[in-house]
Every structure is written in structure tokens, then in C-alpha cells.
Amino acid sequence: MSIKINKKEVLRYLGGTAKNNDNLTDRLIDECIGEIKEISVPKSQFRIFDIKKNQNNIKILNSILILKGKDIIKYLIYSKKVAIMAVTLGIQVDQRIKYYTNIDLTKAVIFDACATTYIEAISDNLESDIKEIANQSNCNLTFRFSPGYGDFSLVVQDNILKVLNSSRIIGLTVSNEHILIPSKSVTAIIGFEDKSKKKPTGKVQKRIDNEKCKTCLRYKNCIYLQEGTFCEFRKKNL
Amino acid sequence: MNFVKKIFEEKEKKFLLFDSAMGTTLQKMGLKAGEIPELFNFTHSDIIFDIHKQNIEAGSDIIITNTFGANEIKLKGCQYSVEDIVHKAVSLARKAAGKKYVALDLGPTGQLLEPLGSLKFEQAYDLYKRQVLAGVDAGVDLILIETISDLYEAKAAILAAKENSNLPVFCTMTFDQNGRTLTGTDPITMVNVLEGLGVDVIGLNCSLGPKEILPIVNEILKYAKIPVMVQPNAGLPEYVDGETVFNVSPEEFATVMVEIAKKGVRILGGCCGTTPEFIVKLHEELKDIDPAVPKPISYTCACSSTKTIIFNKNQPKIIGERINPTGNKNIKNALIDQDYGAIINEAIVQKEAGADVLDVNIGLLEIDEPVTMVKIIKELQGIIDIPLQIDSANFEALEAGARVFNGKPILNSVTGKKEHMEQIFPIVKKYGTCVIGLTMDERGLPKSIEQRVEIAEKIIKTANQYGIHKNNILIDCLVLTASTHQDQVLKSLKAMQIIKQKFGVTTVLGASNISFGLPHRDLINQTFLAMALTYGLDAPITDPLIPEIIETISAYRVLSDIDKNAEDFISRYSNKQSEKLLPKEKTKESLSNIIIKGLLNQVEQKTLELLKDTQPLSIIDNHLIPSLDIVGDMYDSGDIFLPQLIRSAETVKKAFKIIKSNMPQEQEKALSKGKILLATVAGDVHDIGKNIVKVLLENYGFNVIDLGKDVPIDSIVSTCIEQNIKLVGLSALMTPTVENMKKTIEKLQKSDNECKIMVGGAVLNEKYAKIINADYYGKDAREAVNIAKKFFQKN
Fold first, then answer.
1. Which residues of B touch A81 (CB under 8 A)?
2. A47, A132, A173: best mutation site toward chain B, by most B Cβ within 10 Å?
3. How far are the Cα atoms of A110, A111, B229, B381, B653 from residue A104, in angstroms, in the given order?
4. Percent share of chain B, pLDDT over 90
């Protein structure tokens, strides 16, 4: 898989700017990018399902999965199908981060940020594959929505992975606390919206360029920003 | 006679056929995505029976029960127990099998094992044990452990199968196109570790089609001394509109499988995407084929889970000796304080310096050696990818270590004493390890060459009676110090040479003690090493941090015509002086600037310079702390960012270490500004944030007890009580683990030890910290330092 790790993104995760970045750090970032490319074993998968909606939940048809929560229901309000996707960099990346944490914490932190950037880029790439399929059936895609966003509980990870058979196919597993292992992994739901159906135009669908949100992992794909609002986490924290 | 041999020899069967896929077939029959396939044993028993029956009719000799995921983890919330499902599945298979064989299917647990995952090795063992016991009770003929990616999980399953049944055990792993399993195991490592554990058959299944699996089969056949089985998918899975399809036809499948059979694979079947039709074709095509006999190569090796180190004279291997409390204060303290950071560090520096294997000796009266051995091996194998040599005089520690090591370790050691061999060899055999045989016995240390050879022979022959091949024995001819036993040095070397020639075994030697009691020890060690290599030493046990060790080996390889045209030597040394002669980098920078700029390579010299005329405490108070404050302010104002802050902190850490090592111990204690316990709470495996907090707190002189990540509540509470901790820092990154943070706080506050708790982590904020009853909230590492400063000023 030849997907680029964008250095600017890495800097953003680390809180760096063109101004405060120095040569040594810059070189370390390059080194880490090279190393991640070398050792990681990126794997991705998705499946497309029909869905059945009611007021309280969304059933993923022909599967055991039921999506619950106000936010996911709102998010899929115009969708008729969904793609469920999973992506991982493999356990080697976790291992390397652990290794560096023990001997070179600076490198560990940079390595971690590079890995996060990479997994996002791979997710973007997979999303564009899904988009092609959506186009063929005259659909637009919603943005990626992952367990843990808003009130979409992490508990759902267990069944998402079961439905995709992820532990067997891409080696992605979930702990008793519903945390993905390997840790540099993403699961997400993407909605298919009919292009022909017109959405109500009450809200201004504009991305607010908000400095505070830029530190967030989800900044690029934040559904709240799409809507011109922001999430609970920001309300509380930032 | 073992099961497979009996079938091949007595029944004169040429090939043994397994069946076709269960899982993908069930999907076609209406199994919903994510549904437990084992439920079909009850809800659609006719379908399961049919699939079995069709396979038997197609020509399968062995059918696999529909129990791939029948373990407690995967069945969570299901109305049937493991035993219910195994019994039902076996009865369906048995009914269809008639006189053919039924294999109990054991798939992966579904969780990743420690240390990177959260499932403990012992838990994985228990999960498999329950399945095995149920299978034995239900009357299966053999156990098939399959589709395993993680070698450690395979080990847990094999031990569970062998310790809880007398059935034949087959084990197949699944490989990626890059030639490794998802957790990084390569074919040679798989063969050595699983064969060592005593399985009857090893092999490959799933993931790839027959064509793609072929190169991996070739690798396995190069090394395997036991029968090999192969069950590929019906081609590489392809994704069409998000659905998985397999495109290889039964004919194409059978054609490649015949090729595989011709190479020497005699047990064959199909995985995902295959159907009974594939077995029919395969059965037909194999009729006129005669099986080949593979010729595996013979060698001695040790393995981690991802790397196999083969011992051979062309490239002597270094066994790093530095993890040993004798003469190493850091290791000793780490063992007593149960803070294994120093041991991990010692492992990493040895590996980076070029060690091929690491000796782990933790012999200390103050600790429970078997228990500690398990903990340390688990820590080390999560970080280091080279094999370990488990070194102990306590055979319980040797066994405990061999059991939990993820790979094929070397045990150090056995002697020629009868009683000693009786204790050690069963461990070597059961866990498939290597063992170092010391040439001494009841008579003590031998004085003559002949006696050494005789003892070596006794060890090799006795091992053979236990079924241990001489490839798994490394002989150590024991060299004592030249200052006390000068006349014995050459005798040891000559004996080693004879033993090597006569028995064809690998040799090791401790190569550091020789110089004890003499001046200029490095010179003696270096010369001795050169001599020993010439006499046929394969692996010195030594200190890889001494540059002359590697240099001597490189030079030896030139002079003994191994390194042809001195290519390696020239590429290593043509532009380089001996590492010892390299001048240390000089600096004109002040210590303060060195810290602010994070100039890690200059801090040592500058600190030592200052120590000549400045009091240690004054360096800390007047140089280190003010510089750190400046760095902190720069960070707050955005002039620098996280990596630079950490680099400065690591620079201070290094300075601190140097200052401490130059201080008398009683003064060192006065340095501490207070003791703080840090932990990432149970369930949470993200600990980078906590580690940043740790290094900054230490920079400011706080004594940090770091319990690591995913720390059980009880262990935090008990450590607080034992060590009289007054300030605790807890970290959590994920929402669900904040619940565990809350529980930890509750327990701490109920305990007898009065302490305050600060919390931090991405999901927390001031308000949330209050809700879970924490005393302080630190938004970042800088804030944690301020909290600690204020706290210890008041208390």
C-alpha cells in the first residue's frame, strides 16, 4: 500500500508549527515516517449493508449489529445503506512505540503521531474506495463515524469486529474494555445517501475553521463541524 | 507409534485428507454476519451434518468439528456452554464420519495476548483447556489447532491440549503474503517452536490460496522434521462491492495442491471458500501421486516469536550477559523494588550493541525467583525481538520461564550430575528448549581434557534418552579465571575443539570471567575470545557493550577466511576508528543552553565538568531546575512544542543520573522532593502521556514509582499502603476506563493509607475529575509538576 504520511499532519498532532519546528525534530519525523512504512502491516476491510431504521436504533440487516444512540441515528438520517469499515496498522507498530518509550521518549511521541497520521490516511484511502461504489449506485457518502463519537458507545466495537470477522481477516481485536488492539486502528460507519433525494436546506453546511478543534483527531472528518456546531467534548474541555 | 505414522505406515495410506471450509459454507447457508457459527450445531444440525457427510463422501479422512470459536470469550452471552457446543458438534461429526476420524477444532481466542493485548497467557491456556476437556469427553480422535496468527496463542493451545489429553495434536498457523503471520512469526520460527512443543503435525491454513501459500510451504519443508499439513483458501479473498469472494476453481486448486503434495506434504485439505467439490477433485488427482520424503536441514537455533538465531561457526553469535544482579547494582535494585525499567533498558542496550541472545539471570535471595522470572520474561518479550537464555540454579524458575517464553529459549544450564539431568531434561523436552550442558559432574570440575569430553558425551547421551536431539544441546567447557587456574585455560579450549568435532554440537563459553583478578582485563578478554573462536567457539557469553568484543569477532572472521575479501570488515571499519578512541563531543554551551536546546549528546561531559567544582545539589537547584522552568514557559507560550519539551526533559534526566552516580547514597536520599505513584488504570493500554508526566516529575526531583499501564486496582492500593505513598497520579485515555479510574479512587480513599489523587488524560477535564472524586486535575505534564510541588510544600 503506498499511502503518504503527511508531515504537516504529524506536526499538527504534536502541536508544532512551521515556526517552532527545529531541524532535529524535523529529521526525527522523517525517520519515523520511514520506519513506520517499513514495519507496519496495514490492513483494511469493509462490508456494505442495508439498514432498517426506527426511532430508537438502526438495524444492520443480515447481521447481528444494532446501532444505538441519538448521534448515530441523527447522522444516518438520510442514509439508506451503510459501509462498515475497519483499518489497522498491525501490532508491530504498538511494539515499536513501546520499545521507544523505554529508550527514547521523544522518538516514541513522534512515532506515535506519525502512526496516527498514517492510520487516518489509510482510512481516507479506504473511504475513497467506498465512495466509488457509492457513486455507482448514485449515492453520496456521509463522513466516517466511529464508536466513541458523541453518545455512540464504544461497546459496539465488539459487534462491529464480529460482523467484519476482523480478528481473523485483519488481526484486529477488542479488549474487555472495548478498546481496539492493535491500538493504531480505526473502525467506522459510513452512510450512503441518495444523490437524487434533496436534503432539507435549513442548516448551513459549513465547516467552521476553529482553532480549538484543530487539535482533535477527528477534526478533518468531524460531523459537528460539518453542521456548523461542535461536539460535547469541546463544550466541556476546550 | 504415533497416530500419523500409524496411518501412513501400517495402513499404507499415501495421503491424509482433511475436509473443506465450514465458516464460508455456513455464510452461504444463511449465517448472519457476526452470528456465532457454532449455534448452527443446534439450530441447523441437519446442515452441519450434511456438510460433514458430503466431505466424507468426497474422500475426507478427517473431518473438523464446528467448534472453531467455541471458547468462553467468543460465546459470551450465548445460551449454550462450551461443553454443550463441543458435545453437540462432536456428535454430529461422529455420526457423519463413520469409521473416519473426527478432529476437535480449536481456533484463535479472538483476543490478543499480553503484553500488547490484554489476555494473559494463563487465561488463554484455561480457555483452551476447557475446550480440550470437553472434546476428550465427547470422544474426538485428535485435536486441530488452526488459523492461529499469534505464536504465543499457539503455545497456550498446544500446552492445554497436551496436558489435558493424550490425543494427537495438529497445529496450523495462518500467514500473510509477506511470508509472516500477522504478529510477525516467520516459517522457520513456527517450525522450531511448535515442533519443540511436541505437536504431531504442523502446517498452514487460511489467508492465502494454494499458489500464494507455496513459497511458505517450501520454507516449512526445509526445516520440519514432522509431517506437514496444508489447507489453503480457494484463492486469495477478493472484495467485490464489500463482499468477500474466492475465485479459484476446484480444478485449479487440486492442480496446485498436487504440486504441494509432490514436495512432501502428505496431509491436505481446504479452508475458506472451498467446498466438498474441492475435496473430490483433490482426492482424484492424488490417486496416482507418490508422496515425496522431504529432507530437512540440521542445525541448532534459539527463537523469539519473530526471529530465529541459527548458531554456526561462520558468524559467531553473542549471548549478552548483563542482566545479572551479581555485580550490577541497577539490576539488583530493580529486582528488589520490582521496577523493571532498568532491566528492560539493559536488554535494549545489549540488543542495540549487537547481542543475538540475552541471558536473563535474576538470582537473588530477596526475591521469589520463579514468580519474578515469569514477570520479567513477559516484560522483555514484549519489547525485545531476540531470543532469551533463561539462567537459573533454581529449576522451578527454569521451568516457569520456559513455559511463558514466547519462542524457543536456551536454558542455562544442566551439568553432568545424574540428579541434575533428571530435573532439567524433562523441562527441556516438554518445552522444546535448548540447554547449555556444563562439563562438570558429581566429581566436580574436571582437570583433564579427556574428562571434559567424557562428561559432554554423558550429557548428550542422557539427553538422547529423554528424546532430546543433540542439536538442542550447547556445550560449555567452563573456563575459570586465568589468575587462579592458568593451566586449565588451554585444556578447556582443546576439550571444546574435540567435543565439537566428535559430537557435532554447538559450543558456548563464558568469556568475561577469565580475566578476573588481573590488570588490563579487556586485553585478556579480547585475546581469550580470539583464541576461543579459533578453537571453534560458536557463541561467547559476554558483554556486548564492550566494543572490542564485536571488533574481535569481525577480525576473526577475516583471518579465518570466513569474511571473504574482508567485505564485512571493510564496510564496518574503513571509515571508522575503534569506538573507544573516538573523542567525546566537546561543548562550549552552558548546561542551561544544553537543556533548553535538548542537546542530549553534550550533557554528560558538561555535567561532569561542573561536578569538578560545584556541589551536586547546587547543580540541580541552580542549573537544572531553572532551565527546566524556562523550557516549560517556552512550551506554554508555543515557542517550542511537545517533542522539544520531552527532549529537554530527557536531557535533564541524563544529567540527574550522572549527578546521582557521583553522590554518596545518604545524600542521594536527601535529593528526593517526595514520592509519587503513577499508573495508567486497569483496562487502559495507552501510556505515553503517563510516561511524559513521569519524566518531568523526575526532572523536578520527585521519586516516581511507576506501576505501568493496565494496572489492577488492588495492586495500586496495596503498593500505596506498602510504600506509604501520599500522592498518586492516575491516567486514562479512553472513556470506558474512566470508570476504572473512579473505582480506583474509591478504593484508595477507603483504604487505611491517607493519600491525595491527581488525575489526567485525554478524556478528562476539571469537572469530570471532580465527579469521580479526584483531588486534583492536571491538564498536562507541566501541571502535574505544579500540583506535586504545591502538595509537597504543604505536606
1. none
2. A173
3. 10, 10, 44, 18, 12
4. 84
| Count of CA atoms in the C-beta half-sphere (13 A) of A234 | 17
The answer to whether A95 contacts chain B (CB < 8 Å) is: yes
- The tens digit of pLDDT for each residue in B91-117 reads 999 999 999 999 999 999 999 998 888
Chain B interface includes A196 (CB < 8 A) = no
Query: Rounded mean pLDDT of chain A?
Result: 87
N- to C-terminal Cα distance for chain A? 36
pLDDT of residue A208: 41
DSSP designation for B318: P
Q: Could you tell me the pLDDT band of residue B685, with boundaries at 50, 70 and 90?
A: confident
- Rounded Cα distance between B742 and B757, Å, is 11
Cβ–Cβ contact A62 with B under 8 A: yes
- Report the C-alpha gap between A207 and A214 in whole angstroms: 12
Q: What is the mean pLDDT of residues B723-736?
A: 89
Residues 11-50 of A with CB under 8 A from B: 14-17, 20-22, 24-25, 28, 41, 43, 45-49
Confirm whether B13-286 and B672-794 share one CATH topology.
no
What ranges in B61-120 are assigned the alpha helix state H?
82-97
**Model confidence at B583: pLDDT above 60:** no
Adjacent-strand bridge partners of A44: A87
CATH topology of domain B311-545: TIM Barrel (3.20.20)
Kindly list the structural domains of chain A, giving each domain's residue range(s) and its CATH number in brackets, ordered by start.
7-199 (3.40.109.40), 200-238 (no CATH)
Nearest CA in chain A to B638: A20
pLDDT at residue number A206: 40
* CB B433 within 8 Å of CB B427: yes
Nearest to B180 by CA among B193, B192, B190, B172: B190
> Residue A180's closest chain B neighbor by CA?
B117
CB proximity B34 to A under 8 Å: yes
Please check whether residue B374 is in contact with residue B338, taking contact to mean a CB–CB distance below 8 angstroms. no
Domain B672-794 fold is: Rossmann fold (3.40.50)
Q: Write out the H or E segment, with its range, that includes residue B249.
A: none
* H or E segment and range at residue B303: strand B300-303
Residue type, B31: L
Please state which architecture CATH assigns to domain B13-286: Alpha-Beta Barrel (3.20)
A contact residues 128-167, partner B, Cβ 8 Å cutoff: 130, 133, 148, 154-155, 159, 162-165, 167
Q: Per-residue pLDDT for B520 more than 80?
A: yes
Question: What pLDDT, on the 0 to 100 scale, is given for residue B378?
Answer: 96
pLDDT of residue A217: 58
- The answer to whether the predicted template modeling score (pTM) of the entire model surpasses 0.90 is yes
Predicted confidence (pLDDT) at residue B128 exceeds the cutoff of 60: yes
Subunit contact B348:A173, Cβ cutoff 8 A: no
Domain boundaries, chain B: 13-286, 311-545, 672-794
Q: Do B182 and A237 touch (CB under 8 A)?
A: no
Q: Look at A154 and B183 and tell me if their CB atoms are within 8 Å.
A: no
C-alpha cell at B666: 545518604
Overall average pLDDT of the B38-47 stretch: 97
> B411-432, pLDDT tens digit by residue?
999 999 999 999 999 999 999 9
Contact list in B for residue A159 (CB cut-off 8 A) is: 34
**In chain B, residues 114-153 whose CB comes closer than 8 Å to chain A:** 115-118, 147, 149
B364/A contact by beta carbon, under 8 A: no
- The alpha carbons of chain A give a radius of gyration, in whole angstroms, of 19
Q: Decide if A108 touches B, using CB distance below 8 A.
A: yes
Give the minimum alpha-carbon distance from A218 to chain B in angstroms, rounded to a whole number: 13
Condensed to tens digits (0 to 9), the pLDDT of residues A24-80 reads: 899 999 999 999 999 999 999 999 999 999 989 999 999 999 999 998 999 999 999
Cα B452 from Cα B447, distance rounded (Å): 8
